[in-house]
Amino acid sequence: MEELGLPREELQQVEREHRDLPNVRRRVISRLLEGKQYSEAESLLRESKELDRKWPGLVSGYSQELIGLYEETGQTEKLLDELQFQVFQCGQHDLAYVKKLKEQTSTSRWPELRERLLAGKRCLAICGKRFWRKRGFMRG
Predict the structure, then answer these.
(1) Does the pTM exceed 0.85?
(2) 115: left (phi over 0), alpha (psi -120 to 50) or beta
(3) Which has more confidence, 140 or 75?
(4) Residue 108 near residue 126, CB atoms below 8 Å
């Protein structure tokens, strides 16, 4: 619609009317992040996680965007919470978010989270226990 020269006001009206569509929300989120309107972007990302909860891939993407937003804005508590959501609730294909979670977690709290990870199936499926031990995520 932008490419067709639709005025910004009309474009925003269409976005409001079709806010229930994930692609419309993603477009708005991108524009908000580009404009450094972090509060509005955060709100829409959180809303999108709830609205699209039936689609795990979309929820994981929103979570990843929130992680980036919290890293950029230095919101460490929210970052830690979102990293835990990403690691424990979203499918993982590698250890990138597990490593970020470990970096953000206090050394006294990490063993508890590590045990929770190892007891669950999401992250263990990424690689075997030997891999985890070798990289310092497990003892023994």
Answers:
(1) no
(2) alpha
(3) 75
(4) no
